[in-house]
Each structure stands twice: as C-alpha cells, then as structure tokens.
Amino acid sequence: MTSFLETLKERIVIFDGAMGTNLQAQNLTVDDFGGPQFEGCPEYLLISKPEAIEKVHTAFLDVGCDVVETNSFGGTSVVLAEYQIPHMAYELNFKAAELARRIANDYSTKSQPRWVAGSMGQERNCQRLDT
Question: How many domains is the chain partitioned into structurally?
Fold first, then answer.
C-alpha cells in the first residue's frame, strides 16, 4: 500500500469536511445523544449512536475523500467536563479512532488507500478574556 507521504508527493489528498455540521443535518434527538446530560456532545455519540458517526464517515468516503477525521474534536477532558465525563477522554478518543479506521479499511484499496486523521480541537464554549 502506498504511504501517505508518498501519495502527497504524487497528488492532492482530500480530507473530509465538518463532522459537527453533518451530524446536525441528521436531526439527532436528545435520546440519540444519550439523554439530556449528553445533548450536544458529538463525542458521546460514539457510545449512544455510533451509526450516526459511521454515516458521516461513509458519506465522505463515498464521494472520494482520502482521509476521514475522527469524531474527537472535543475529546479533551476540559470539554468533556461540560458533560461530567472528563474521565472518558481516552475511551472516547480510542473509540473515535477505532470506528474511523474500521470504516476507512472498508473503502481502502491498493490503488486508493484511505487514511484516518485524529481530530483535536479546543473547548467549544470559549470566552474572550479582556486584559
């Protein structure tokens, strides 16, 4: 299989798009998120409704993306503390990578390998600090 760096030398590599926007388009319910405590926590969907994440990855790979990003943008203990689950950061990040890799493997061929990139973000509810 061609390595990622070798492929970059040969052609443009296409990454997927916005995970959050594509999850919102699914009109997920509070129950889909796992209850009111987890509403708005896309990382918890890896536990409560992983098929929603699979649907996003699959859609991007169906249109030819080379790389899908994990559903782990807010997978830090700081962000997950908003949902009282900072202790789940490792588990959720692992599940995000595992799920993305499984889906990417389903699409990967010798002539068109597919890769997974870890998504790292920041706290969603940032506040401006005036000095």
Answer: 1
